[in-house]
Write a structure and sequence with these properties.
RMP1; rRNA primary transcript binding; 77% helix; RNase MRP protein 1 RNA binding domain-containing protein; RMP1_RBD; mainly alpha
Amino acid sequence: MTQREGTRGINRPSPVACNDACSKLASILPILEAFNHRHRNQHSASHWWKAFNILRRQLRKLCETLHLAIGYQGRKQERHLAMVSAQSQHIAHVVIPQSYPAITQLAADNQHAALGIALMAAIAGVHSALVGLLPEEETAGADTTKQKINTEMRPAESSNDGDKGVTISRSQFTTAHEVAPDRKRKATSTLVAAEDKTASTQAIGSKEKDKSSRKKKKPKKGGDAFSSLFGSL
């Protein structure tokens, strides 16, 4: 199979779509290059840097292919349009899904959240630029999936056939409410009896203490005159 036969069944984007995508990526790629130049020494060993570097290189290759597809005519243009289609699908279905979790983790980090938010904005711009390069079937499928997710996230509307729970009779509801006051009365009576018992015990103890304090010592019989004198006082 020749290269011409191998690229015959590929859905190629139009030159107009390539020009539009090239203009959008031309504003995003310099930002990624400046980001790489500024933060390479500090974050090159981080777990998210590899995903960012792969995304940046793939976008640079796609921009070069877009320029060639726009500049050529005839068979060379068809070949480069097929390459544009393959590269855009690879970025949309492989590179972005692999880099997105690492970049979202970077955005959740308090120390480098600004870097993660900037890269997430760049990914959103890249996805918007790739929409015109992807086949129409994949674009329609993505829209259908998005609508399905939004539908599933909405609360389910009430219907007559829905589950409304178990019916409880009024007698069971009344019995359950009657049992609670009885238990409350028993607990109250027990608490009052305990308080009365404690009060009576304290009263008896105080009476006995008063009696013992009021007792006086009896004078000894046969004492001398001084003891009798002071004892009468």
